[in-house]
Amino acid sequence: MKDKKLQLINENSSPLFRIMSVYNSNTANRVFTNNICAFYIGNGIVVSVAHNLRLLDILPCILSESFYQSELLPKINVADKPLFDRSYQLIGTNQRIAMGLNQTHSEELAKKLDESKVDRRYTKLYSENCCSPFLVATFRNNVFCNDTTLSTYFPVNKSFPEPTLNRHTFLIELELLDNLVSEDIAIYRIINTPEEIINKLPAIEIDFELYDTGTQDYFCLQVAPYDNLGRIINEARIEGLLDNFATENDLLGNSYHFEGMRYLIKGYFRFGSSGAPYLIYDHENETFKVNAIQSQASFIQLSINGNKNGNLQYVNGIATPLSIVEQKIRERQNEVV
Questions:
Q1: Contact 57, 122 (CB under 8 A)
Q2: Whole-angstrom distance, CA of residue 48 vs CA of residue 228
Q3: What is the pLDDT of residue 302?
Q4: Angstrom distance (rounded) from CA 73 to CA 67
Q5: pLDDT < 50 regions, the chain
Q6: How far apart are the first and last CA of the chain?
Q7: Over the stretch 223-245, which tens digit does the pLDDT of each residue have?
Q8: Which of 215, 225, 336, 213 is nearest to 272 (CA)?
Q9: How far apart are CA 261 and CA 215, in angstroms?
């Protein structure tokens, strides 16, 4: 089993990735926001959580002209239009880019957007072509998944060095297929990407079984304690089964309900590991399979020297068993694109 674990945390063979919302993805001036864990299950399908999609981008750096005209201008105060026109300058025919903003101006604009209840949720920004979701893969050298033949398949600006991170980053474009709010699961499809790249991505098989408390050989594959570029696989335990209900509201007046079957998981998880897969080891086939996904924190927090402030490490999490979305995932995996 140890060798299988090492494969899961190796950058060339791990199915654990990140999804980020990227502005200006076709240029070197790209901007990354909205970092979340995700995992690849094959056939071009990527799974993550959905709760980050409802977040409001504080101040989008790019707005499409259609969004600006139909969503922003009708909601803001008429007297503020000159300010927004100066701040979001039209480039070409369908793109407005935030320019010349300092912190004070940015905070002022963000406050006005909040007061006007302008919808900057990432689902809205995706649908309005302001930014797009991308699968982010990073490697220590300029080689995708340790295959030197694949670098030429990445277009300009989808592959670039990041010297300050000692990494080379590759971007793979995604399309959001399903935003399952109640289950807190998002399903994406890889698009505009050669089959050679899709086929090389490490995938993990799903085990749709609903397991009981105390199930053996259960693990969490997540980002490492210090930085998202690392990975860790650690023991976990299903400590409880619950019929979940939680609700949250946003400043736009939307209410979100998270409900349905969940696992209460005991074991280390890092804040920021939402979207990480919980795995079970299949001894018969000698392989790991994904069974659930990290969704929410259950607030039993570790303390360091009696202090919890600034300590983002927890020992209890709430995970969504993939059994409750089995039909939807199977439908997506079996689609002919």
A1: yes
A2: 15
A3: 53
A4: 9
A5: none
A6: 36
A7: 988 888 899 999 999 999 999 99
A8: 225
A9: 17
Q: Report d(CA 45, CA 290) in Å as an integer.
A: 14
> Rounded distance, CA 273 to CA 285, Å?
28
Per-residue model confidence (pLDDT) at position 304? 57
pTM, to two decimals: 0.93
Ramachandran area for residue 275 (φ above 0: left; ψ -120 to 50: alpha; else beta): left
Residue with tokens 């736009």: 252
* pLDDT given for residue 308 in this prediction: 58
Q: Write the CB contacts of 334 (distance below 8 Å, at least 6 apart in sequence).
A: 43
The DSSP-derived string for 27-77 is STT-EEEEEEEEEEEETTEEEE-SGGGGPBPSS-SEE-HHHIIIIITTTS-
Q: Alpha-carbon distance 310 to 299, whole Å?
A: 14
302 neighbors 317 (Cβ within 8 angstroms):
no
* Backbone region of residue 100 per phi and psi (left: phi > 0; alpha: psi in -120 to 50; beta: other values): left
Whether 65 and 107 have beta carbons less than 8 Å apart is answered as no
Cα 79 from Cα 252, distance rounded (Å)? 22
